[in-house]
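Hey there, shall we discuss this one?
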Amino acid sequence: MTQQSLAACWNERHQSLYEKLDGEGAVKAAMDIFYRKVLRDIRLLFFPALSLLLAACPASADPPSSTAVGTAAEPIEVRIYSSEFEYEPKTVQVEAGRPVHLVLDNSRGTIEHDLSLPEQNVYLKAEAGKMAERRLVFNQPGQYPFKCSLPGHREAGMIGVVAVATGVAGAVSSAKAGPSGEGGEGIVDALPEGLSRLPQPSAAPPVGRRDPKSVQVQLEARPVTGLIADGVGYKYWTYDGTVPGPMIRVRQGDTVELTLRNALDSQLTHSIDSHAVTGPGGGAKATQTPPGGTSIFRFKAIKPGAYVYHCASPMIPHHIANGLYGLMVVEPPEGWPKVDREFYVMQGDFYLNGDPAQKGLHEGSVTKMLTEKPDYVVFNGSVGALAKENALKARVGETVRIFFGVGGPNVTSSFHVIGEMFDRVYPEAGSEYATNVQTTMVPAGGAAIVDFKLEYPGTYILVDHSLARLQKGGAGFLEVEGTADPAIFHAVQPGSGGSSGH
């Protein structure tokens, strides 16, 4: 062994130990000093002895693109690094019949990942900064696909393959890592019997005039299955089982203690980022909560308005796209002008695996989400969520207020109520209002407050006036009862060309 190859081998071993100690700054710094100033001299003085001890080392310190094989008598360590959202390497190569020490190394990851090898009945899961390992033997040559089974991670690119060969085989191209469609996005499960739409959250009542006080807020992130359209089920991620999550209502100046629980049957870490919070990550840094866990933080509600809250765990838009969003309303000390009825409505865009028209139970599609091609753009979580028995209801002569938000993750709304004008609009839910507004623009992650008086009975349709989204479910209904006043509206000679598009 040459001095150069010995140094490369030593570098490799040192780097492996270094990575295991990653995050321990003092240890790393000490190792750097020790390695650079001391071991360099030892290596030069005792080169022959080190050559004997390290004779089995490979000659290169560079990590291979695929794990090389050795003799069948020797066990081999196969280390696969996980991070957001990839494996490295994506392809590994071993010899049939050779013992394998498989390590999932998530020291580079900031969230949990797993490695599922279904054909070998192997499942490894590692929290951020941790590792998981398993001994196994591949007895038969072939290609064994692996993936991260956590929702959305495979679709984001976390797939790979173990190539098993007899004897010494060549490297496997990473381009072939993972068979096309394995566990694929086109697969749709059967629709559970009796599945219904999610329940509707209601507007929280006004706080009223009072002094600031301490307020306790509790939320639970949990998965819920429900209908997103007739015959089409969806695996939602929710706060408290609804989309949007509960409307939280406090007063400016309140001290809010927010407790976030993550249900044990959640598959991922969840969190909450509230745009009403002044503090790191809007609370997200303090609430990265694993399944079965609880986190608590406290903040002061400094500024009035209606603010979106949402999950901010990687991949953030994936968590939002599955339904993890809601509104936190901070009232000014004097409150807003009194109205007769208040409603809580949020728009969201959803991305389904496979054909969205296919009957059955769907999961979210990361691919469609990243290309910003929603299958559904809906109010309150599903097509028809604000229709029939769930339609908003009021009477002629009443003034109504809608707290309207857009969870996103991608689509901006042109919010409009067909047949009405907004008497007052608080653009982006700010403190100042505009009057007599027909349509208001609400960005993803934004909100608006709209007030209007009802002067004629009938059904009024809530829409995103980017009207192609009507075909994707973007409609809600406000049913107004009362006596018609012909001075306000009267059909003198109705047309006979068919029904209205409304």
About this structure: The longest strand covers residues 214-229. Confidence is low (pLDDT under 50) at residues 1-72, 168-184. Residues 205 and 215 are 15 Å apart (CA to CA).
